[in-house]
Design a protein that fits this description.
globular, alpha/beta
Length: 389
């Protein structure tokens, strides 16, 4: 008969694998010493042979198991070990991330755009670029004259209603200003969509953090990771309400003296920022009544004329230097990028066509970076065809 390992055994109670030798108890005492030595040598030999046979059987079983596991991975010890290693690695990574970011509340990331009719194609291109590089779904908000027809997923707010409900006109700089190409004689300081940024806290009452982003931008990095890793409630600079790319100069667009020729006091700001792209902690903004402070400054500017531009100066003057500095790549101006030694188009996370030359007008540098996001995607075209049917 055979045992469970496939080795032969005998029926006389010998528990060793064959060959197995037993001697009769009746003549065991008559065996000579030489016979005894031969017996022991034979027994050892038999044991060695049996061991070799046993190991061979194990190898055969193991090979059979491996052959079977190649067609059915459920029985593979190699696959199981790999899965265990991967699971352990991922679990440890998750634990490290949870420990590192235990203080974070990973709510959805919100982006707010606001523009007039002339800049709609810019808003759409910027949104497409965000989607192309975001690691998670992003919630988009748009304030304008009409919804973005090709983007029904964007939450729309009518600009007239927003202006009336939240007294946006209070922030307007009543002093006239035109840009380089005069853009049809438009007074840029009267462009109401620019001032919507100052009522984000009321417009998004249940949102903790959001991104304000101008319509003349293309985003080439993951905005989700950006928002999740700035303005953290970790005990460091918990009073900062804003994160932006620093500009290592005092604010621009300020008057040096009032209408009577008397000099204004120094604002004490040596590091400012560009307001075209920034993350705002709306809870802190509300707690510190930042909107009211900006409104007060804007109303006083009408009398004393502190600054000549629209939405940039009152925000910079109110925030001062108390803002979290983002990497320089998150707001790269196209009009000066080719002159910089510390930044290139390839390294930029946000391309910003600030100034009078706009890509949707066919103007500005590096239009090749903007045009791919201007063309309607296949999905959007398909959606339109389905709607027409």
């Amino acid at each position: 008969m055979t045992d469970e390992r496939g080795s032969k055994t005998v029926d006389d109670g010998c528990s060793r694998p064959t060959p197995c030798t037993r001697t009769s108890s009746t003549n065991s005492h008559d065996v000579s010493s030489s016979s005894a030595d031969s017996y022991h040598r034979l027994s050892v030999a038999h044991l060695l042979v049996a061991s070799v046979l046993f190991l061979g059987a194990l190898l055969a079983v193991n090979e059979h198991t491996h052959s079977y596991s190649r067609s059915d991975t459920a029985g593979s010890s190699d696959n199981a070990a790999t899965i265990r290693r991967r699971t352990t690695m991922r679990t440890n990574n998750l634990k490290r991330r949870m420990k590192k970011h235990a203080h974070r509340n990973d709510e959805p990331v919100h982006l707010l755009y606001s523009s007039d009719e002339r800049s709609l194609s810019g808003v759409e291109a910027s949104i497409r670029s965000v989607i192309a590089h975001a690691s998670e779904d992003v919630v988009f908000h748009f304030v304008g004259d009409r919804p973005l027809d090709r983007m029904p997923f964007v939450k729309f707010y009518n600009i007239a209603e927003v202006v009336d409900k939240y007294a946006v006109a209070d922030f307007v700089n009543t002093h006239h200003r035109h840009n380089g190409n005069d853009r049809e004689g438009i007074n840029l300081n009267q462009n109401l969509p620019n001032y919507v940024r100052f009522v984000m806290d009321d417009l998004l009452p249940d949102v903790k953090k959001a991104v304000w982003i101008d319509s003349d931008t293309i985003v080439k990095c993951d905005v989700v990771e950006l928002v999740r890793n700035v303005l953290l409630d970790d005990g460091n600079n918990d009073d900062y309400v804003l994160a932006a790319v620093p500009v290592f100069t005092p604010p621009t667009g300020l008057y040096e003296e009032d209408r009577n020729g008397d000099p204004f006091p120094d604002w004490g700001i040596e590091i400012s920022f560009n307001a075209g792209v920034y993350v705002v902690h709306l809870d802190r903004w509300r707690e510190q009544n930042v909107s009211d402070k900006i409104r007060d400054l804007a109303l006083r500017n009408r009398k004393y004329r502190y600054y000549q531009m629209g939405s940039q100066p009152p925000l910079v003057l109110t925030i001062g230097e108390k803002f979290e500095q983002l990497p320089l790549s998150w707001n790269v101006k196209m009009k000066t990028v080719d002159e910089r030694d510390d930044m290139s188009v390839e390294d930029a996370c946000v391309l910003h066509w600030s100034g009078p030359l706009k890509p949707w007008d066919g103007n500005g540098k590096h239009l090749e970076e903007w045009l791919p996001y201007h063309v309607k995607s296949v999905e959007e075209s398909s959606d339109e065809e389905e709607d027409e049917q």
